[in-house]
Structure prediction request, 490 residues.
Amino acid sequence: MLKNVLIANRGEIACRIIRTLRRLGIASTAVYHFADRGAPHVTAADHAIELTADVPTAAYLDVAQLLAAAQAAGADAIHPGYGFLAENAGFAAAVEAAGLVFIGPQPEVIRLMGDKIISREFAVSQGVPVAPSCKQEGALEDFVAGATAIGFPLLIKAAAGGGGKGMSIVRSAEELPAKAATASSEALRYFADGRVYAERYVERPRHIEVQVFGDGQGHVVHLFERECSVQRRFQKIIEESPAPNLPVALRDRICASAVQLAAAAKYRNAGTVEFILAPDGEFYFLEMNTRLQVEHPVTECVTGLDLVELQVRVAGGEAFTLQQADITQTGHAFECRVCAEQPEHDFRPATGRVMTLREPVGEGLRFDGGLREGLAVTAAFDSMLAKLIAYGENRAESAARMRDALNELVLLGVDHNVDYLGRIFTHPAFLAGELHTGFVVEHAPALTAAPLHTDERAAVLIAAILGTDEFRRLAYDCPEPHASIGHWRN
Prediction:
C-alpha cells in the first residue's frame, strides 16, 4: 500500500481523493497557490505545500514544482485528479522518471488514447464503430475539401481537446472554412495543439459513456454506462446511471466495445470510453478519457465501489482481481454539476465570494465540494464549484431526491445554476428520459426563469440574510462585558 500521495489538483476533486486516502490510512499532501491558501483541500490534507507562480493556473501546471513538492513531502505517488495535467503523457512520464507512482494509465497509453485522432484510428483497427471523419494534415484548404466530402452536418473537434473547447457544428460548405480556422485557433490556445478533425455530426444524439478499469496487462472490466446527454456548450451538467430507455442488448454491445478497446490498449487504472448513440440505435466511438471522470460518483453509487480506492490499490501494486461477474448495477443515481455561471446569459461564467453555504443532507444524498464561506470564486479556474449526487432505488425516486436537494441547497455570494438545474428536474421530457445532447437548446424557453420583480428579489435577499448564522449572532448575541454579568445592562 502507498504511504503518502500528493494530489496534483485542487477544489472538490482534491477533497474527494483525500477522503478515500484518509479511510485507507494513507497520508495526503495538498498543493496550493497563494490564492488558494485557505481552501478546504489545503486544510483537509495531512500536509500542504505552496506552489508559486504569477497566476494560479500556472502553479498547478508547473511539473518541476509538483515533483519537488512530492519529494519534499516524502510522497511515493501522485494522483492527478482531472483537468490540469491529468491526461498529460509527459507529466505521467516525468512522475515515473522521478521514481514516483503515477496513479493513472501508462504514459504511452495516454498518448495513444488521449489524442483524439490517434485513438480513433486505433478504434477502427479494433473494429469499434467510428463515425466517418477526416483529419487536418496539411493546408486548411485540403482539410476543408476532405471534410466537405463527408457531407453535412459536420462536427469540428480539437485533436488534443476536451470540455467542449475547439468544437463547432458546421451545417454548410460556406461556413466550413471560417469555423475550421476558428476551431484550430481555439485548440491552439487551450491545448497548445492546433490540429483539428471533422466527423459526421449525428442529429439529436445521446452521449453514452462506459466506465472501465484495467490492470495494464489486458484484463479490463466495465462498471456499466452513464448517460451524459444533458449539456450546455458541449459540456455536461447532468449525468446519470443507468442510462434511461436504453435496451439491455444495446447497452451490452456498447459496454463490450469499451472493454474491447481498453483491453487492446492494455489500459491500466480507471478510464472512460465515450460514445455517440444515434436515434436509429447505431453508436460510434467518440473518445477515451484517460483519467477519473467528474461524474464517477454516479458509478460509485450504483456499483458500491470506491473508484479512487481501486485506483490507489492498483497503482500501489495490488493485483486487480475484480471480475465482470462480480460487478452489479443497483438502483439509480444522478449527478448535477453546480457551476458559477449565469444560465440566463448563455451560461456566462460568474465570479464572487461564497457568503453562505448550506449543503443539503438526507438519505441517498452526497455533496462533493471544495467550498467554504468566504472563499473567493474567480475566473482563474473552471466554473464548476461542486457536485450534488442523489441515489434511489429507481430513477423516479432518485430524481425526486435530487429535486428536493436542489431546493435545499443554499449558495449565496456568486451566481450559479442551481435553480436552472431544478427546472430541468421538473421538465416532463427529462423525467420521461427523452434525452439528447440538444436537450438544453430545444427546451430553452421552458427552462428559462421568469425575472424576479424588484420587491420579490428584495424579499428573497432579506429572508436569506435573516437566516444566516452571522446575522443572528450580530443581532442576538450579548457582547462583553454584558455577557459576563448577566442580563443586567448598564
Remarks:
- The chain has four domains: 4-103, 132-200, 206-447, 452-490.
- The CA atoms of residues 135 and 197 lie 4 Å apart.
